[in-house]
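Data card: per-record layout.
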Amino acid sequence: MAGPDLAQRQPARPRRRRDWITSIAILAGLLVGLAGLHVVLEGAGWYWAIALLCILLLGIGAGARALRWPAWTAPVLQIAALIATVTAVFAPKTALAWIIPTSATWQSWQRTLALAGRSIDEQSIPAIAVPAIMFLLCIGIGAIAITADFLAITTRTPALAGVPLLVLLAVPGFVSTGSSDPLVFVGAAAVYLFLLSIGSRRDQVRLAFGLGGLVIVAALVLPAVLPPVQSDARGGGGGGLSTTVNPVLSRGRDLRSPQATEVLRSGRSEYLRLVSIDNFKGSDWSPDAPGVEQRNTVSAIGDPPGLLADVARETHSTSIEVGQLSSPWLPLPYPSTGVTGLEGSWTWDVNGLAVSSRTTSAAGQTYRATSIVAMPTPAQLLAAGTTVPAGFGRFVSVPRDLPTIVRQTADQVTGADGTNYEKALALQSYFRNSGFTYSESAPVEDGYDGTGGQIIAKFLDAKAGYCIHFASAMAMMARVEGIPSRVAVGFLPGTRIEGEEPTRYQVTSKELHAWPELYFAGVGWIRFEPTVTRGDVPGYADETTPDVPIPSTNDDTGATAATAAPTAAPHGAQSDDAASTGGADSGGPSAAVVWLRVLPFLILFVLLALALAPALVRLLQRSARLRRLRLGTAPVALAWNELMQSSADLGAPVPDTVTPREAMQLVGHGLLADDPSLARMVAALEIESYAKDASGAAYPGLADDLRAVQRMIASYAPRSRRIIAALLPPSIWSLATGLVTR
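The structure for this 742-residue chain is written out next.
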């Protein structure tokens, strides 16, 4: 009799050639999928590193098959290569011969995973691919490459190879709904269709369409219905504050930790800046690419731009102890001229003098910062006039679609004449003395939380917001008046710790703050404080200081001349509104790249898809065979093979050495020997197999007889066997095992 023909045998040479083409197609799919992560990860170095890893793993598999080694050796060698590579790159000192992992290597990997989780929580999108994140990428993408290679080549099911590629396509959508790149989907679909065309069997056509639809639904729809991926304001890793730039500026709806968390302690009462943000594109403030060079070591930081020698200054040394602050930026007074005592690799940015690290967090750092306190006189600031230095165009850039109310309010507040200094004082006075209130809840409730142009317009109309709104509004209105401006993010000075000597100041999560910095020729960048009830106004901007110009009254905007000290709360104070919400004056939690956050969903989905894959393959295989039988284009042997396979799945396997008549006695545990449907199938098979003229052996009712016998076999099988046959068909698993071990 004809035995089960579950896999079409092909000549070795064409098959090996097809395997090489398949390997190249898998590599192309991985490279396209990796490109989609550009919305999640910053730069391109990580891309080429992971691409080389994929080439290595797929090349090892292709080489093993080219040498005609047993099929199981390819995945085993690939897994060994992945482990050796990860060990050599991330923990060589703990391994034997730098590549053979030991127990110490495993412990090192666990620490790296913990660092990766902390880095994920502390970074915004796109994140920097620090070594810990690269470790996750190598493990995850390497596993995807090996799995896709195994499914497409070893088990000869290229349709299933699209399942692991789903992980790459889905990550951007899980991180942020709508962030998936359509071009990546188009490229991935093209590669997938090409992969299916390389020698695919006919019974995989429906499977291909089914999985293709599954990939699209999962990657585009699931992120919209699953809970949003976020981290709270306390961040990960022990409840520390997670600070990033863009979330602080644009996601105030997620702020407000119920309790204040100590962030750091400082030896001086002063503003501590993390980073400055100077790029405004109409939707939000965001940082430009940092001008960091590896030779910019923090022992000596560059001179502050624009500060001339004739400006009075003092030099201070401040000791700072950082607690639960997961941030790639270091809190420092501006401008700092040097930092000592840091652990890890830190560099300073030539644009804003911010100190940051790509590999180390500020958490747990203890260091000493040397800084300058510039004390310009009102006369020096007035002498700056309206000068804007060459190369400062981006600091006065204003989007064309900036709402009219922002421009009109700026013009009305500052008047037609006056120096940049006088205009800056008028703007600050407008926010502090014209009925504005500090509120963290109003922007959220009224839908204008963030920093975009439209949001600034709504803030000016509502006159209620928190520090982000005050800082971004004043900075933008300063630009409207031709004054170079940017927004700084950092911390208020905090509160003195009673009874501690030497004097120390405690800074908590409630002191997270933002303020505008304006540039004046000969003086450089200096701080202003428009936020009511928060922080303090520097002497050169305090209207009660001698010689500081007092802005004139302007009834059109409601601004009034300040005849008393501006409303300024003590260091660390906050309004009743802020206290009632229990919020930190931040722009919200860090938006994680969220690999660790989404990984459980992805792993669960992939495991579920792989677990159901055999059942899907068996269902499509049976449907394809029945369709061919009903069309009259298939031989009787195909119906017999399907019957033998069904019997084996239901726990009654028939040896392929018996004759059809003998098999008839065994099918259904010998209970169907007298069944007419089975008798007709056996007679037709004998004619087809042994008669000289086999024409007409496949009769019109063959498909119906096959289904009738299959139903009867199933009726005699225990329920448990029927469940196994439906969900985990043994014949499909036997096929995969045979392909691996042949």
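Known properties of this structure: Confidence is low (pLDDT under 50) at residues 1-11, 222-256, 558-598, 737-742. The chain has 24 helices and 19 strands.

See the next section for split statistics.
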